[in-house]
From TrEMBL:
The lineage of its organism: Eukaryota, Viridiplantae, Streptophyta, Embryophyta, Tracheophyta. Pfam families: Zn_ribbon_GRF. InterPro entries: Znf_GRF (IPR010666). One of its GO terms (molecular function) is zinc ion binding. It comes from Abeliophyllum distichum. Residues 17-59 form the GRF-type domain. This is GRF-type domain-containing protein. The keyword Glycoprotein does not apply. The chain crosses the membrane at residues 91-108. Keywords: Membrane, Metal-binding, Transmembrane, Transmembrane helix, Zinc, Zinc-finger. It comes from the Eukaryota.
Length: 109
């Protein structure tokens, strides 16, 4: 089910979720709704939360979706690359320390 901006108005006038709390503005990062903001229960994911949910932004255009999803994929690739670079750096750091240790021990004995 897809809510549109116009659907929000009557419920947003309540300005409280079914728990009786003020909802909070969050951002969706799913492939279908990347970067689209919505109002949700502040206790979402916790025991006893309600299912209060309304889009704050209109549905994104296909072009916008493909650009944002492409950028998100690129960012994930960069994150993975950073992890690999970190692993390589740790390997060389350890190798360097072992080399230093080797030469120190060799000069002592
Ligand atoms: Zn709630």
């Amino acid at each position: 089910m897809d809510h549109h901006f116009g659907d929000c108005t009557p419920v947003m006038k309540r300005r409280i979720c079914y728990c009786g709390e003020l909802p909070i503005l969050k951002t969706s990062w799913t492939e279908i709704n990347p970067g689209r903001r919505f109002w949700g229960c502040r206790f979402y994911g916790k025991v006893g939360c309600c299912d209060f949910f309304y889009w704050a932004d209109p549905a994104p255009h296909e072009r916008y979706k493909s650009v944002i999803n492409g950028l998100l994929r690129k960012r994930n690739e960069v994150d993975k690359e950073k992890v690999n670079i970190g692993k390589t750096a740790r390997f060389y750091k350890i190798a360097l320390w072992l080399l230093v240790l080797f030469f120190v021990l060799r000069s002592v004995f």
